[in-house]
Design goal:
Blueprint: E1 2-6, H1 14-22, E2 26-30, H2 33-39, E3 46-49, H3 56-64, E4 68-71, H4 80-90, E5 95-99, H5 106-114, E6 125-130, E7 133-138, E8 141-145, E9 151-156, E10 160-167, E11 174-179, E12 188-189, E13 194-198, E14 204-209
Parallel strand pairs: 1-2, 1-5, 2-3, 3-4, 5-6
Antiparallel strand pairs: 6-7, 7-14, 8-13, 9-12, 9-14, 10-11, 10-13
Length: about 220
């Protein structure tokens, strides 16, 4: 099952985000992400968080429309997005798209990206979508679908990612490591509609930026 989670960050491509959210079998808002969804004229299945970004009036309208409101105390160990991801996993989602996870506060942006390494998400396809960019983690192997000219950056989220093998990229890796810190993996380029990335150990973040005019 595919779940879409809308967080309270910046969404520049409103139409693209709305199209993704509108077709979701499970649409979840992390607290103030409900503002985005309500502006699009959609009703989320659930809103999760401490509700510090929502006034009582929109909360009342959501509840009257049948949205499940899951309130948590403001003094908690998890961010609202982590709670929303946990809910999606418990509902059986094996594909999760996250909107509105970037922009605004840098601490939230970095924390949201690092959530991709959460062990509970292993075995599930989880992507952060931001306009023409998608961010996701390679744990073993992934195939990218896009077009020639797409930008692909490979960023280690562990001290070292070993045994990286790529195909379909302009600057190939043939079993080499990438280390956290140096920028060697930034701005590779797809040569055609597909590329593959395989790793042996570590956490590798992929940032796939589609060419202008491509679908998000």
């Amino acid at each position: 099952m595919r779940a879409v989670i809308v967080a309270n960050g910046i969404i520049e491509d409103e139409e693209g985000a709305k199209a993704i959210a509108a077709g979701a079998p499970l649409l979840i808002c992390a607290d103030g992400g409900a503002h985005h969804v309500m502006r699009w004229g959609l009703r989320p299945h659930a809103v999760i968080g401490d509700m510090d970004s929502l006034e009582e009036d929109p909360l009342r309208r959501l509840e009257e429309a049948g949205t499940l409101l899951l309130r948590y105390p403001s003094r908690k160990d998890e961010t609202d997005l982590e709670l929303a991801l946990d809910y999606a996993v418990r509902q059986g989602a094996d594909e999760i798209l996250i909107l509105g996870a970037l922009g605004g506060r840098w601490d939230h942006t970095v924390a949201n990206i690092l959530l991709l390494t959460w062990p509970r998400l292993e075995g599930r396809e989880v992507q952060i979508v931001a306009g023409q960019e998608r961010l996701f983690l390679v744990r073993r192997q992934v195939t990218l679908h896009g077009a020639a000219g797409d930008i692909v950056s490979l960023l280690p989220l562990s001290p070292v990612v070993e045994g990286i093998v790529t195909s379909g990229l302009e600057y190939p890796l043939r079993g080499e490591p990438l280390y956290m810190g140096p920028s060697r993996g930034v701005s590779n380029v797809m040569l055609g509609p597909e590329a593959t990335i395989t790793i042996q150990t570590g956490w590798l973040l992929v940032v796939h930026r589609r060419s202008a005019g491509g679908n998000p």
